[in-house]
């Protein structure tokens, strides 16, 4: 009788599914000082001081005070105080760079703001571009668009002393304010 009752209870008890472990890795937050090297991985947030190198890395929020070198990266919002070198990188959020900018085959899907004397975009797509006025710099601020680079929105120089140097294969799809466009043959 007890065996039957136990068997009945066991068989009639609801079965609980054991949940498989989540396939999402836990969120990572990094604060490298000096040199931070990242490979093919996904990180929620990186706040780096010094040199940050990304190679195939996805970062939702990236802040660097120093230098950024990225290759094959996917970035959300981006704030750089220093130098930004991006190759084959997509940035999906708002971006601000105070310092030198060089890009190659990259894409900024939201507005890009830079405070620099010179920025060079090679085979790069930019949503829109604002060049912030640098109070201590009195010269021209220069944006170079090379090898099929495209700026879909406006380019605005806050200083009123800007130049966009653009080659024949690149284009600006909106207006330039606060500066002039200089067409280059090669």
Tags for this entry?
1 helix, mainly beta, disordered N terminus, 56% strand, 19-stranded parallel beta sheet, 186 residues
Explain the overall architecture.
The protein is mainly beta and 186 residues long. The protein has one domain. It is built from one helix and 19 strands. The protein has a 19-stranded parallel beta sheet that branches. The longest helix has 11 residues. 26% of the residues are buried. The N terminus is likely disordered.
Task: Explain briefly what this protein structure is.
The protein has 1 helix and 19 strands. It has 186 residues and is mainly β. The protein has one domain (28-184).
Secondary-structure element order, N to C:
HEEEEEEEEEEEEEEEEEEE
* Global morphology: globular
> Distance N terminus to C terminus?
95 Å
Number of domains: 1
Any idea what the radius of gyration is? 25 Å
Give the low-confidence spans: 1-22
Q: How much helicity do the residues have?
A: under 10%
The biggest beta sheet is recorded as: 19 strands, parallel
* Strands, total number: 19
How many helices? The count is: 1
Category from helices, strands and their pairing:
mainly beta
The proportion of strand residues reads over 45%
Q: pLDDT average, as an integer? A: 88
């Amino acid at each position: 009788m007890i065996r039957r009752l136990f068997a009945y209870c066991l068989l009639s008890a609801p079965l609980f599914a054991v949940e498989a472990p989540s396939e999402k890795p836990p969120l990572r937050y990094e604060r490298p000082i000096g040199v931070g090297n990242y490979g093919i991985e996904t990180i929620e947030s990186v706040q780096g001081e010094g040199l940050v190198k990304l190679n195939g890395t996805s970062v939702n929020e990236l802040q660097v005070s120093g230098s950024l070198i990225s290759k094959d990266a996917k970035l959300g919002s981006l704030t750089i105080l220093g130098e930004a070198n991006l190759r084959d990188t997509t940035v999906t959020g708002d971006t601000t760079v105070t310092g030198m900018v060089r890009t190659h085959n990259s894409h900024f899907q939201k507005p890009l703001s830079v405070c620099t004397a010179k920025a060079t975009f090679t085979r790069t797509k930019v949503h829109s571009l604002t060049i912030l006025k640098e109070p201590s710099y009195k010269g021209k601020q220069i944006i170079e668009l090379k090898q099929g680079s495209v700026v879909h929105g406006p380019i605005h120089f806050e200083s009123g002393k800007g130049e966009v140097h653009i080659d024949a294969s690149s284009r600006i799809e909106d207006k330039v304010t606060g500066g002039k466009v200089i067409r280059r043959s090669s």
